[in-house]
User: Which sequence fits this backbone?
């Protein structure tokens, strides 16, 4: 089973809360894991960014939306109890609950800000159609922007000369840490006499370790086959080398990948266009930060050191 979206959690959360007891946020996790028959792997899966467990985060957002729309009361931070309004939804379907929550969230946002028709349409679309949490929507938007940048990187590379591409990949490998502190560790070979070796990087001052490079600037739709990898392996052998990196703007065939993986007398790493763009992006070669978004969360240690008012709850405070 796949990890349920946060709007699939609403009815199960409501039924767990039907005992009218106060639930700590973390207490919902285990019963919901059992309800959805999640495996340990699914329950412990993290976001690609490493910023938290996906399922736990979805529970947290579902609870927050319930509190914001009045279905659950929040007597204090991190604790939830079924409200009078929530009790009226116990006999409703998950979809009926979703419709109510999304409508109420749309009304809340409309009250909080006056925006253009375009902005309002975007906001309504996010709330009424998305099955992802706001955090997941943020990650998805970032991934879309990042992939578009990958495409731009490759398209730009294809407008440059083959020799410029060779210089680029040598510079990239040095950015990635190969060559270490060796001065002028990377170089490209003479263009007309490279013998299948386009560049090399010295791993140490004495030049005892060398990484040989082949760089092929092909159209993204092109596929590099096994013969090209065999030729590169032969060039390594002819230069008494056993480490090579084959980098291209296109992709490799299955046979080419298998051949490189099964070499016994040399280690050849294949970097296709997608992986090349990812490395260029990750190591900041020819790209710059356009903007930084800072997302803050509550400092629980700070607030826990401030005494609670045990005589009141958030639901009965004066308006």
Assistant:
């Amino acid at each position: 089973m796949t990890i349920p979206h946060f709007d699939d959690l609403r009815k199960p959360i409501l039924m767990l809360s039907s005992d009218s007891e106060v639930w700590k946020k973390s207490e919902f996790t285990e019963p919901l894991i059992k309800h959805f028959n999640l495996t340990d792997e699914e329950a412990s899966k993290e976001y690609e960014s490493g910023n938290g467990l996906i399922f736990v985060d979805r529970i947290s957002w579902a609870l927050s939306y319930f509190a914001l729309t009045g279905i659950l009361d929040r007597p204090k931070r991190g604790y939830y109890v079924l409200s009078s309004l929530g009790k009226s939804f116990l006999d409703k379907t998950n979809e009926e609950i979703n419709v109510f929550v999304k409508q109420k969230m749309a009304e809340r946002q409309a009250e909080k800000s006056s925006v253009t028709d375009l902005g309002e349409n975007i906001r309504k679309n996010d709330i009424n159609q998305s099955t992802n949490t706001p955090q997941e929507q943020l990650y998805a938007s970032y991934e879309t922007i990042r992939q578009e940048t990958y495409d731009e990187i490759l398209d730009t590379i294809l407008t440059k000369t083959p020799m410029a591409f060779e210089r680029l990949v040598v510079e990239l490998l040095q950015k990635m840490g190969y060559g270490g502190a060796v001065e002028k560790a990377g170089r490209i070979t003479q263009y007309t006499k490279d013998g299948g070796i386009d560049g090399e990087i010295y791993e140490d001052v004495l030049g005892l370790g060398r990484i040989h490079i082949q760089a092929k600037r092909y159209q993204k739709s092109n596929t590099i086959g096994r013969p090209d990898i065999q030729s590169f392996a032969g060039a390594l052998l002819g230069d008494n080398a056993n480490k090579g990196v084959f980098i291209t703007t296109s992709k490799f065939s299955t046979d080419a990948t298998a051949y490189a993986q099964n070499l016994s007398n040399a280690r050849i790493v294949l970097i296709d266009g997608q992986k090349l763009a990812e490395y260029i992006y990750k190591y900041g070669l020819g790209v710059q930060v356009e903007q930084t978004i800072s997302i803050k969360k509550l400092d629980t240690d700070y607030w826990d050191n401030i005494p609670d008012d045990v005589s009141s709850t958030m639901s009965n405070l004066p308006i």
Summary: Residues 114-125 have pLDDT under 50 and may be disordered. Residues 180 and 203 are 7 Å apart (CA to CA).
